[in-house]
């Protein structure tokens, strides 16, 4: 456990509770403070999660928005989730209002805090949180396409027969329907991914649809996704707390596009340290730009 690493989880629904459980198991934070507008939900989750306290050195309790604002890492999961067939972008009206009220209720936010957005549409909400929170942009991050990239690596790893962490491949852009797979830079052991016989003749569009459609598939079957994102977020918390400087595809402000999208970034204890300029071919670049223009139009409706 790293002494003094306090994490707030705002939103104690499926995603917030599962992230809290992953953090408990990870034993990296000193304390988790769970916050929700529905007090009974917080009480219930804390009682349930504290039954697992015997396997952890991390304490969990309910708290106020003000206390959350003073934590080292503030994870925002509060928000409506997609109904089957609903897109993430369609959540913006509801989740903008929730985010606005959460950020106002936490003010003044600790100046060194890292704000980690998870609620959807995560890229647009990250952009809005960068504007509303008053924190430097590198401290306001979205989980972005880290989860999509994990889905991609799993699928590739199982078709080639290597470990997932041997697959160097990213989903970039929107954590949503316009995301792109950066095929042109993807490799295993330095060999371009598409040179592997197992992948040489794949239908890239169909493959990409399976990755971007995985959340829809899970939501259709069980109503929500939460284990994958909890794994992603707890590993991001570890990276921040231990200043590990891993490279992850996260929602970050892209100067060139004037909006927030996922690109590979170096993550450390001060947040995003820098973006990695990944090679993209002209088709990938064009699709990314198209996605950025569409997202920026939505962002501009909410904050200038
Ligand atoms: N970025 C990603 O990869 C993923 C994002 N998500 C997103 O996470 C969000 C949460 O999903 P679930 O936990 O499944 O939903 P949920 O409905 O189980 O929980 C949402 C919680 O937010 C709370 N809430 C609403 N307004 C609030 C406010 N003003 N202050 C504090 N709490 C408030 C609700 O009371 C509820 O407990 C959704 O937007 C979902 O789309 C889900 C999975 C992956
Ligand atoms: C719900 C969501 O954003 C996901 O599982 O990718």
From TrEMBL:
Binding site for NAD(+): 11-16, 36, 95, 118-120
Enzyme Commission no: 1.1.1.27
Catalytic activity as recorded in UniProt: (S)-lactate + NAD(+) = pyruvate + NADH + H(+)
GO biological process: lactate metabolic process
Lactate/malate dehydrogenase C-terminal domain boundaries: 145-302
GO molecular function: L-lactate dehydrogenase (NAD+) activity
InterPro entries: L-lactate/malate_DH (IPR001557), L-lactate_DH (IPR011304), L-lactate_DH_AS (IPR018177), Lactate/malate_DH_C (IPR022383), Lactate/malate_DH_N (IPR001236), Lactate_DH/Glyco_Ohase_4_C (IPR015955), NAD(P)-bd_dom_sf (IPR036291)
Domain Lactate/malate dehydrogenase N-terminal, chain residue ranges per copy: 6-142
GO annotation, cellular component aspect: cytoplasm
HAMAP family documented for this protein: Lactate_dehydrog
PANTHER family listed in its UniProt record: L-2-HYDROXYCARBOXYLATE DEHYDROGENASE (NAD(P)(+)), L-LACTATE DEHYDROGENASE
Protein name in the entry: L-lactate dehydrogenase
Taxonomic placement: Eukaryota, Fungi, Fungi incertae sedis, Mucoromycota, Glomeromycotina
């Amino acid at each position: 456990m790293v002494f003094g690493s306090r994490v707030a989880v705002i939103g104690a629904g499926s995603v917030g509770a599962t992230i809290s459980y992953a953090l408990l198991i990870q034993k990296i934070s000193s304390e988790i403070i769970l916050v929700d507008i529905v007090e009974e939900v917080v009480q219930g989750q804390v009682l349930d999660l504290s039954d697992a306290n015997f396997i952890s050195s991390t304490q969990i309790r309910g708290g106020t928005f003000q206390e959350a604002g003073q934590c080292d890492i503030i994870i925002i999961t509060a928000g409506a989730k997609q109904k089957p067939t609903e897109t993430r972008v369609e959540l913006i009206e509801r989740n903008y209002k929730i985010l606005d009220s959460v950020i106002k209720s936490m003010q003044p936010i600790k100046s060194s805090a890292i704000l980690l957005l998870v609620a959807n549409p995560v890229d647009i909400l990250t952009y809005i949180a960068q504007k509303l929170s008053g924190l430097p942009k590198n401290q306001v991050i979205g989980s972005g396409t880290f989860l999509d990239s994990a889905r991609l690596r799993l699928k590739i790893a199982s078709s080639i027969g290597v470990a997932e962490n041997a697959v160097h491949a990213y989903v970039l852009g929107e954590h949503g329907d316009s995301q792109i797979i950066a095929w042109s830079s993807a490799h295993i052991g330095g060999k371009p991914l598409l040179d592997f016989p197992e992948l040489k003749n794949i239908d890239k569009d169909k493959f990409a649809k399976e990755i971007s459609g995985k959340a829809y598939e899970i939501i259709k079957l069980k109503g929500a996704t939460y284990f994958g994102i909890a794994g992603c977020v707890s590993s991001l918390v570890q990276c921040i707390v231990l200043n590990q400087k891993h490279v992850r595809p996260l929602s970050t402000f892209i100067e060139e596009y004037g909006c927030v999208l996922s690109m590979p970034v170096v993550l450390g204890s001060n947040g995003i340290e820098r973006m990695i300029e990944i090679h993209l071919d002209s088709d990938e670049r064009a699709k990314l730009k198209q996605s950025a223009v569409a997202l920026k139009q939505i962002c501009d409706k909410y904050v200038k």
